[in-house]
């Protein structure tokens, strides 16, 4: 048959068999197969070339030089001039927030900051603009000072001073959050971790990395990859997000299915408390039962309990073999059934199980000009399955057996398989760039929901039915393997009436099925009032007591995470 790879031939034979019984099945295997075999191979060339043009980092750097607002591997936005660039309403005005009685920054304060972090005090209003607005351009503060410490001692000095002076502080990493947690609401001082970007140590035996909070996730991944390890987390904003911000928000992402959450992989951290004291829990031990595990308080606390300045993190070995299958399914029930089969047949090599609906596919096609690699009419649902293992032959065999099973049983109606890195990246772009495509579609109402997996897509269907034509698009995608749905709704502009139709409907629906209204993005500013849909009063009350104990004056990231007192 002209196919020499043992692993591929299994798929090839099964495919030939499937073609006869399932005429809709289309597959491209990029390794060892020629385009003569499959009609869809030709379409891949276009797909790949498109991807290269759209994703070229060089062109991004060129463009963003004009006015660099945010550079994300998969999330980019920029403006060509500062004049009239920001039409983002002030958060305080759009949401009617009352400023808490913090002090205002005086010239004397600025002199202190200049003394503490010389040359790293930014007060130029134009330079401050991008730090005052979130990546989604939905919330905006009006901070007049940005500080860039390099070491935890400087953070300590700053916080001790701010606490005494009753000055509010917003810690900021890469500013890639999606819930308005990393930008000020009023004039809070922005404490950027951008210059705290040093690796402290890496142990090539244990895989334990100790680094400062401002290291960029992608840079860290490249660093540990050189030593045959990978970071235990990966997410769309990897090119900009800081590891400290990842830990502070307990970011999830696409590797969680395989390596677990940061609550397990973060072994230790250093945090500076509101009063300036440095809490050094930067241990690098797998096991440590000496008292309460205080680091857990800071993981996911969104900068409200302390500023994370360094982390110790357990990195897995770099897998020797990786494969990505991009499959089309005829229904969500089939997506679920495929997942079940996948877990059973791929077992330990399964590293991601992501899904998107056809509406998402249409958006990445329309706004980012990405091509659907599966030719013919679209599928209602797409699944991206990644395997990562230590033995290419073994993985291929397992994957081929799995594909044979899901094809022959009719669970999967179209598919494509990639084994080389460039092509794997191209397939991942279809999933990872949905957020970016949505921003081109208009104003986006974002929901990040955890639900029992079998209920996951019902929420999308019910929301779509409820909103009818008042929404432009209602889409569902996410980390199916983690039971995490990203429900996104777009409209031409922000409309209060549409918001009223969505909320509290989506939250009540989620609560009814014991889901979480914030699976992996945090509560930040935008979701904090809705915490009660997922946590009992007693839990919220205890959180407020912990906050009051660690930050009695409430200077750390005010207006975030916890609901306004007395609002319930
Ligand atoms: O934009 C979103 O709603 C999700 C973003 C991110 O968590 C993802 O999984 O792509
Ligand atoms: Zn996500």
Automatic annotation (TrEMBL):
<dbReference type="Pfam" id="PF01565">
    <property type="entry name" value="FAD_binding_4"/>
</dbReference>
<comment type="similarity">
    <text>Belongs to the FAD-binding oxidoreductase/transferase type 4 family.</text>
</comment>
<keyword id="KW-0479">Metal-binding</keyword>
<dbReference type="InterPro" id="IPR016166">
    <property type="entry name" value="FAD-bd_PCMH"/>
</dbReference>
<keyword id="KW-0285">Flavoprotein</keyword>
<protein>
    <recommendedName>
        <fullName>D-2-hydroxyglutarate dehydrogenase, mitochondrial</fullName>
        <ecNumber>1.1.99.39</ecNumber>
    </recommendedName>
</protein>
<keyword id="KW-0862">Zinc</keyword>
<dbReference type="GO" id="GO:0051990">
    <property type="term" value="F:(R)-2-hydroxyglutarate dehydrogenase activity"/>
</dbReference>
<comment type="function">
    <text>Catalyzes the oxidation of D-2-hydroxyglutarate (D-2-HG) to alpha-ketoglutarate. Also catalyzes the oxidation of other D-2-hydroxyacids, such as D-malate (D-MAL) and D-lactate (D-LAC). Exhibits high activities towards D-2-HG and D-MAL but a very weak activity towards D-LAC.</text>
</comment>
<dbReference type="InterPro" id="IPR004113">
    <property type="entry name" value="FAD-bd_oxidored_4_C"/>
</dbReference>
<dbReference type="GO" id="GO:0046872">
    <property type="term" value="F:metal ion binding"/>
</dbReference>
<keyword id="KW-0809">Transit peptide</keyword>
<dbReference type="InterPro" id="IPR036318">
    <property type="entry name" value="FAD-bd_PCMH-like_sf"/>
</dbReference>
<dbReference type="GO" id="GO:0071949">
    <property type="term" value="F:FAD binding"/>
</dbReference>
<dbReference type="InterPro" id="IPR016169">
    <property type="entry name" value="FAD-bd_PCMH_sub2"/>
</dbReference>
<dbReference type="InterPro" id="IPR016164">
    <property type="entry name" value="FAD-linked_Oxase-like_C"/>
</dbReference>
<dbReference type="InterPro" id="IPR006094">
    <property type="entry name" value="Oxid_FAD_bind_N"/>
</dbReference>
<dbReference type="GO" id="GO:0006108">
    <property type="term" value="P:malate metabolic process"/>
</dbReference>
<feature type="domain" description="FAD-binding PCMH-type">
    <location>
        <begin position="138"/>
        <end position="318"/>
    </location>
</feature>
<keyword id="KW-0274">FAD</keyword>
<dbReference type="Pfam" id="PF02913">
    <property type="entry name" value="FAD-oxidase_C"/>
</dbReference>
<dbReference type="InterPro" id="IPR016167">
    <property type="entry name" value="FAD-bd_PCMH_sub1"/>
</dbReference>
<dbReference type="GO" id="GO:0005739">
    <property type="term" value="C:mitochondrion"/>
</dbReference>
<dbReference type="InterPro" id="IPR016171">
    <property type="entry name" value="Vanillyl_alc_oxidase_C-sub2"/>
</dbReference>
<keyword id="KW-0560">Oxidoreductase</keyword>
<dbReference type="InterPro" id="IPR051264">
    <property type="entry name" value="FAD-oxidored/transferase_4"/>
</dbReference>
<keyword id="KW-0496">Mitochondrion</keyword>
């Amino acid at each position: 048959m002209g196919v020499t790879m043992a692993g591929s031939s299994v798929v090839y034979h099964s495919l030939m068999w499937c073609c006869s019984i399932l005429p809709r099945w289309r597959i491209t295997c990029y390794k060892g197969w020629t385009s003569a075999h499959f009609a869809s191979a030709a379409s891949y060339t276009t797909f790949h070339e498109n991807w290269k043009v759209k994703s070229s980092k060089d062109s991004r750097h060129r463009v963003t030089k004009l006015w660099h607002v945010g550079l994300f591997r998969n999330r980019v936005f920029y403006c060509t001039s500062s004049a009239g660039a920001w039409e983002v309403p002030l958060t305080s005005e759009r949401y009617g927030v009352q400023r808490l009685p913090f002090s205002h920054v005086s010239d004397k304060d600025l002199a202190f900051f200049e003394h503490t972090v010389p040359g790293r005090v930014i007060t130029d209003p134009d330079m401050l603009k991008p730090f005052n607005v979130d990546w989604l351009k939905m919330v905006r503060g009006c901070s007049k000072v940005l500080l860039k410490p390099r070491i935890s001692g400087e953070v300590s000095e700053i916080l001790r001073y701010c606490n005494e002076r009753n000055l509010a502080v917003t810690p900021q990493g890469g500013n890639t959050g999606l819930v308005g947690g990393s930008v000020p609401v009023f004039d809070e001082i922005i404490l950027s971790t951008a210059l705290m970007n040093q690796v402290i140590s890496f142990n090539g035996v244990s895989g334990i990395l100790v680094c400062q909070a401002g290291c960029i996730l992608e840079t860290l991944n490249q660093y540990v990859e050189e030593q045959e390890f990978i970071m235990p987390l990966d997410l769309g904003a990897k090119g900009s997000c800081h590891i400290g911000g990842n830990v502070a928000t307990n970011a999830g992402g696409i590797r969680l299915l395989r390596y677990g959450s940061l609550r397990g992989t973060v072994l230790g951290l250093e945090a500076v408390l509101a009063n300036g004291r440095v809490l050094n829990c930067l241990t690098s031990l797998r096991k440590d039962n000496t008292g309460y595990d205080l680091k857990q308080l800071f993981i996911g606390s969104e900068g409200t309990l302390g500023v994370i300045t360094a982390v110790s993190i357990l990195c897995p070995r770099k897998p020797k073999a990786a494969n990505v299958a991009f499959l089309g399914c005829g229904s969500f029930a089939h997506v679920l059934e495929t997942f079940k089969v996948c877990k059973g047949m791929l077992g330990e090599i399964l590293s991601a199980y992501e899904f998107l609906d056809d509406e998402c596919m249409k958006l990445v096609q329309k706004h980012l000009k990405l091509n659907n690699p599966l030719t013919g009419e679209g599928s209602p649902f797409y699944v991206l399955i990644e395997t990562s293992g230590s033995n290419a032959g073994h993985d291929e065999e397992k994957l081929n057996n799995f594909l044979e099973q899901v094809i022959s049983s009719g669970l999967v109606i179209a598919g494509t398989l990639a084994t080389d890195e460039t092509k794997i990246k191209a397939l991942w772009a279809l999933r990872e760039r949905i957020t970016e495509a949505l921003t081109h579609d208009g104003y986006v109402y974002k929901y990040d929901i955890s639900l029992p997996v079998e209920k996951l897509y019902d929420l999308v269907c019910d929301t779509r039915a409820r909103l009818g034509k008042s929404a432009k698009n209602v889409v569902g995608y996410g980390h199916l393997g983690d039971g995490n749905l990203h429900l996104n709704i777009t409209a031409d502009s922000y409309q209060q009436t549409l918001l009223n139709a969505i909320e509290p409907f989506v939250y009540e629906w989620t609560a009814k099925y014991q889901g979480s209204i914030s699976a992996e993005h945090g509560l930040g500013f935008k979701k904090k009032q809705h915490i009660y849909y997922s946590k009992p009063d007693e839990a919220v009350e205890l959180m407020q007591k912990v906050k009051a104990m660690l930050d009695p004056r409430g200077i750390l990231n005010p207006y975030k995470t916890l609901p306004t007192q007395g609002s319930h």
